[in-house]
Write a structure and sequence with these properties.
By secondary structure, the protein is of the alpha+beta class. The chain contains two helices and four strands, in the order βαββαβ. Bound molecules: iron/sulfur cluster. Pfam families: Fer4_13.
């Protein structure tokens, strides 16, 4: 899994950091998302997917690794 965030879209709602705090953080200055781990370990995948799904600004993109 690879993650990317669009800080321009982010509205600083903080849902991602609450849902997957190991993966996402919030900038202490502007409140927008910070990506702590763009390639999180498997144990954090479910939370990262959920964070992307609930982000009100659709600012989180999840690229699933291809199954080979
Ligand atoms: S949930 Fe979305 S809008 Fe809210 S801080 Fe995270 S990336 Fe930004």
């Amino acid at each position: 899994m690879k993650l990317s965030v669009d800080r321009e879209r982010c509205c600083g709602a903080g849902m991602c950091a609450l849902t997957a705090p190991e993966v996402f953080d919030q900038d202490g200055e502007d409140g927008r998302v910070l990506l702590r781990d763009p390639q999180p370990p498997h144990r954090h995948h479910a939370a990262a997917r959920e964070a992307a799904a609930i982000c009100p600004a659709a600012a989180i993109t999840v690229i699933e690794a291809r199954q080979t």
